[in-house]
Amino acid sequence: MAYSHGFLNQLQPWGFLSLCFFIGMYGMNTALLTMHFIYRYIVLCRSNLHPILKRKSSGACCVISVVTWGFFYGFITFYCFCANEDFYRYAGPSVLETLGEDIRNLSFFCVFTYEVILNITIMYWHPTIGLFLIVVMMTTSFSVMVVCAIKMHRTLRKASMSQKSRALQTQLLKALVVQAVVPFLMSYLPRFLMFFFVIMGYPPFK
């Protein structure tokens, strides 16, 4: 469960929509970084595709792809991670005890995949499918980055170019890798571990 403390918190449904927009922007950032890897890969490794980069339609396609990717992130949050009566019942007492707030007055999204009642596991498929789609999209993005980075590294080792050009391209590749590694370690990996521990039922640290 992630809730908003902002000024839209009490303005339903705008607080929840702002959280969906935030996740959508999160997805757009990932898509933009992936596009950067693809662009550098084409420039460095696929000279036969250089004419495509000069077309105006290429820029439009990139913008549309990034916005669409972010839209799917936001839509999944809106459709799959919205609260329902089961979650209100499940988390309401804890929220009231911890935050002193009625859960229905909060703007939040939740990944409520299952619940165990009397040793019976009840699956909630909307959030489960949504979480699966988010993980697939994240994995796809970073897989493309890794593949492009490996191919660029191999090209730099084998390609015939001046020492100065090789050093410049190597620095650009290192900078691009750092741009991907930092959000992966600081954002994506902690979120993955958070969802993993919650879904597996591990107790919180005290």
UniProtKB/TrEMBL annotation:
<feature type="transmembrane region" description="Helical">
    <location>
        <begin position="171"/>
        <end position="200"/>
    </location>
</feature>
<feature type="transmembrane region" description="Helical">
    <location>
        <begin position="60"/>
        <end position="79"/>
    </location>
</feature>
<protein>
    <submittedName>
        <fullName>G_PROTEIN_RECEP_F1_2 domain-containing protein</fullName>
    </submittedName>
</protein>
<feature type="transmembrane region" description="Helical">
    <location>
        <begin position="129"/>
        <end position="150"/>
    </location>
</feature>
<dbReference type="InterPro" id="IPR017452">
    <property type="entry name" value="GPCR_Rhodpsn_7TM"/>
</dbReference>
<feature type="domain" description="G-protein coupled receptors family 1 profile">
    <location>
        <begin position="32"/>
        <end position="206"/>
    </location>
</feature>
<feature type="transmembrane region" description="Helical">
    <location>
        <begin position="14"/>
        <end position="39"/>
    </location>
</feature>
<keyword id="KW-0812">Transmembrane</keyword>
<dbReference type="GO" id="GO:0016020">
    <property type="term" value="C:membrane"/>
</dbReference>
<dbReference type="Pfam" id="PF10326">
    <property type="entry name" value="7TM_GPCR_Str"/>
</dbReference>
<keyword id="KW-0472">Membrane</keyword>
<dbReference type="InterPro" id="IPR019428">
    <property type="entry name" value="7TM_GPCR_serpentine_rcpt_Str"/>
</dbReference>
<keyword id="KW-1133">Transmembrane helix</keyword>
